[in-house]
UniProtKB/TrEMBL annotation, chain A:
Record-linked Gene3D superfamilies: Immunoglobulins
Protein name, UniProt field: Thiosulfate oxidation carrier complex protein SoxZ
InterPro entries (UniProt xref): Ig-like_fold (IPR013783), Ig_E-set (IPR014756), SoxZ (IPR030995), SoxZ_dom (IPR014880)
Residues of the Sulphur oxidation protein SoxZ domain: 9-101
One Pfam family this sequence matches: SoxZ
Superkingdom of origin organism: Bacteria
From TrEMBL, chain B:
Entry protein name: SoxAX cytochrome complex subunit A
Family affiliation: Belongs to the SoxA family.
Active site residues per record: 218
Binding site for heme c 1: 72, 75-76, 110
Listed EC numbers: 2.8.5.2
Cofactor(s) this protein requires: heme
Reactions that this protein is recorded to catalyse: L-cysteinyl-[SoxY protein] + thiosulfate + 2 Fe(III)-[cytochrome c] = S-sulfosulfanyl-L-cysteinyl-[SoxY protein] + 2 Fe(II)-[cytochrome c] + 2 H(+); S-sulfanyl-L-cysteinyl-[SoxY protein] + thiosulfate + 2 Fe(III)-[cytochrome c] = S-(2-sulfodisulfanyl)-L-cysteinyl-[SoxY protein] + 2 Fe(II)-[cytochrome c] + 2 H(+)
Upper classification of the organism: Bacteria, Pseudomonadati, Pseudomonadota, Alphaproteobacteria, Hyphomicrobiales
Amino acid sequence: MPSALINVPKRAKRGDVIEIKTLMSHIMETGYRHTASGSVVPRDIITSFACRYNGAEIFRADFFPAIAANPFITFFTTATESGKLDFEWIGDKGFSETASASITVE
Amino acid sequence: MRIAGCIAILVVITGAALAADIPQSDRRSGTSFMGPDSKAMQDDDTANPGMLWVLDGEALWKRKAGTADKACADCHDDARTSMKGVAARYPAFARALGKPIDLEQRINLCRSNHQQATPFAYESHELLALTAFVAEQSRGMPIATGDDPELAPFIERGHALFMQRQGQLNLGCANCHNDNWDRKLAGSPITQGQPTGYPLYRLEWQSLGSLQRRLRACITGIRAQAYDYGSPELVELELYLMTRARGMTMETPAVRP
């Protein structure tokens, strides 16, 4: 049961620099580990994360095996208009999760 | 000179081995040994990965399970009121079994007796999630384990286990966590071993884990044979540690390095 924690300020002044924090539950199995019997534990990671602000992409990141489990991504953007922030995580084994948050800009 | 030095060291070691329990006023949560980054992670519910388990636990609380087709919420209603302070009293004495049980065992007893479902495995995502959700309802409350007089002999046994030297390194819990908690081991602070935030998210584990997992890791560290999950010894140790931390604040889900 994947779940995400999103922290976006509910309101901001136009032009403010705001911090956005996201936490996604994921095991981030590197693909480099072996079981006791010697077989490789298959890679299972998130490969990309993107954030759209009213449809326009404002942040994107590619993930690799060295990123820890439950990736915590924070970044900054400028509050330009009221609306919605959409988050998307895509990964191995068909992993695809979305979340969204709304913001009021005055 | 060298012999005098050796004698001085021996005196220090034997002196430390006889040290008493930590005075009440000197007790410190593991949080106070952490760096500012880890503290910030613990204090922010949207940065604390333990909250992912709490969220899943909340979903499980409301989900019907077992042949009885009952959810936790069907008997206990809103956990925010019914479970408030419960985790701060565990491990507690189970009269039907005549022995203390910890919160995980209580949840699994409820599962098998009332939901008629198969118990969750120790350290499974579901058991950790439900335990974290229940324990989070006690966050900020003082630990109050040990009121039941029936617990006294079990607390005493837990205390004996805590003092007992064992393993190839011939160490007891007390040799580090009572005698040397103000020092470091391989650059990391030795904490007092106060179980204020379990189940907690350890960065080293990249996961939430129970107090039993932590105890087993420590026992393996002194190169002794770790007790099995759910064994009476681990529950007695949990029980003693919670009474030792009586009055300290619950921090579940805590973050630790």
